[in-house]
Design goal:
By secondary structure, this protein is mainly alpha-helical. It has 14 helices and 4 strands. Strands 1-2-4-3 form a 4-stranded mixed β-sheet, with helices on both faces. Helix 5 packs across helix 7, helix 12 packs parallel to helix 14 and helix 13 runs antiparallel to helix 14.
Length: 285
Amino acid sequence: MSKWLLKAACVSPALVASTALVTFVVGPALPVWAGNTLFCAGLLILGTLLVGVGEPTAVRLLFAARKLDGVEQTALSPVLTELCHLELGPPLVTLLVSRQHGLSSAAIAQGRRTIVLSPELVHAIVTRRMPPAEATAVVAHACLVARSGLNRQNPAIAFWSTPWSMLSWLVRPLGPLLRFAWRIRFVVAGVAIWQSATSGPPIRGAMTGGAVAILLVLTYLMPRWSASWERQVAGTGDRELKSLGLAFGMVSFLRRCPQTMAVIERLQLLDPPTIETPRLRLVGS
């Protein structure tokens, strides 16, 4: 699967669900003029984000990020200096700090030129618990991903997925129940397929059962696709990082992270094991 088709497969469910919520739930509940205004305004904002206009502001709103304060700017100055030498730093990119803790990435590209840093990463740099070489490699990795264009449309995707994100936030208190339902989704899907096959017209039942079966299969494929896309993004940044001679800093950082299979694969790419070639020599009789 190509990288763009893979990303489309990862983001399509949230986009389709958000479109359905606006079209069939929110829209009918509003007056006609309000529904039309909402739809037109949404398309206008989406088009603006697709061409990169207002990206830093959109990232601050959509990804709950903020600007660096004075102390953080001072602590990050060695990193920013090195990034500028590599033609990866400001003003080519804008660095923001996330307001959310526990992000999956220490630094991630959100758009064409905006990098969102995790608060844990910034705190480690400010308190000097992270060496400058590691910090430079981590931030440079995100800058290289931004330059590759893999996350170029993330702000537009996040904006159009807002209804789905809001619904997910509203049902968060039902987390334990939803997690249990998710684990037994094959049972629920099986019952739905059986009911559709045994009641109503055969053609309609077959179509409904087929749709449920496809959705069930997609629920198992989506995590695989998402993990594959994350490996694609990480690998792209790692290869560019290695070509710039910054692999050592990233290797040092990754070795202090939990050694998951994804981390081990990245370490093998950045610091492949050396295999000694056996040498031939004459042996006296």
